[in-house]
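Same chain as my last thread, 294 residues:
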Amino acid sequence: MKHIEKIAIAILLLVVIGLLTESGMTRKIKEPTNKTHLTQDEAAVKLEEKLREELKKAQEVIKKYEQEALDKKQGAKRLGIVTIHTPPYYSWANLSIPNKKKYAKKHGYGLYIEHGKSDERHPVWSKLTSLLQHMEEDKHEWFWALDIDALIINGNKKATDVLDDNYDLIVQSDCNMFNAGSFMIKNSEWSKEYLKRVLKIEKPTIEGLREQSAMMDVYHQDEETKRHFKWVQQRDLNAYRDYPSFCDQTRISGIYEEGDLVIHFPGHSGWDQFPGILKEWLAKETGLPDDLYP
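reply #2:
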């Protein structure tokens, strides 16, 4: 017997016992001594009405749990979240990872937390190699690459709502260019080949932006590649608390607003202070369970 069926039967039994006790039918029903008491037939009718009402409520509860279970099952197939971190980021990871676990658990999404590097270059390149590895396992239709210094603030929003199967990448641009801190990539043969093309680039046009610049270098190679990209508003996937100093201040449009899915902290400074900033924003979480294992 499924767990949800056991819960439903338990609910119904408790309801029936409670109503029988209330009506007095668990003991011998006495003849009414005055007109204020119900006859046995009237009591039976009243009990039946209450049972029907409580049964309807129980069915609604069961339907709700069944829908939640179905949503999670569909979410697990639809999306996997990938995030990586290396030793310098451990103090951040201890705050950021539970946030992502709670969100993934709520919606049933897969979650892959990579420790250390899978590429010889700067750790950011390992995000792309990890994506390729998980795509080969073919567990999810889409993957969400989300940096360790990004937090999910609005747990009620489904990341899958932004997906569009007419494209292979769902991306956004900050004040300067595409930002790889949060993007969606479809688990398709085209996407795998795209990532391989990006990883072959040893010297991106803007070397300081590493994998971000390399991803845009490949994007600009031909018009066919561009047709596989869907550009969304920055705040749909990657809102900022504030902009790094290197940003073009005339193109600011992605500052966090209440209700946004994600808050990201690129180009931050002050490593010692950063955990405190994360804690401050974690206090603003909405729609997520208080702990991982209620």
